[in-house]
Amino acid sequence: MSEIYFIRHGQASFGADNYDKLSPTGVIQSRITAKHFAGLEICFDAIYSGRMERQKGTAAELIDYYRHNRIDVPEPILSGAFDEYDSTGVWESQIAGMLDEDPSLAQQLETVRDDKKAFQKIFSRVMYRWVSGDYDQAGTESWKDYSQRVRQGYLHIMAEQGAKKKLAVFSSGGPICVGVQMALNLSDRKAIEINWQIMNASVTRFIYNQKGMALSVFNDVTHLELEKIPGLLTYR
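Request: output the structure for the sequence above.
Response:
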């Protein structure tokens, strides 16, 4: 039996010009996560990361912490399979059609940059529309293609690493929710709802063998809660 620890990246820079970058809170979350794994004396046989800056930055904090404390740690393997979906592309592919269906949406859109709740309300509608597959647009990765890409990533690392391994994958909410979907045989709609529950720097653990994979731990942020730092628990 092998274990895959899926770590969601620390908080990104919501509202900034470059979203794909750890915020100051995201850096703190990532360092606490690194300290947590080191304290458990977990030595990883392989570390994978998506190619996004926030994913690589979170992985780098763990690798730096391990090396500073003279704990063996392998070089990260970058994999596009664990990149997050293009949220901007998905948004742009769906929002025009939504405005045609509901012109009153235009007024709500004026508030989304500064109001996270307003953003999430509209974004959830965008995502349901995307996941349905009924409104796919040329040039934007469909949910079907996206989830297949991520599934192939899971299958690849399980086949590549084999038995009795501890693996870390630094990724995002989307690839984690696809893994949960695989393990629990969830519908696409339920999988995307799971995505919205996944917290920054949370740990989701899967176990696998030749028979398949199972969910062991989901969305664990105990390591952050124990710090008792206000504002440390974030979703976006």
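The longest strand covers residues 212-220.
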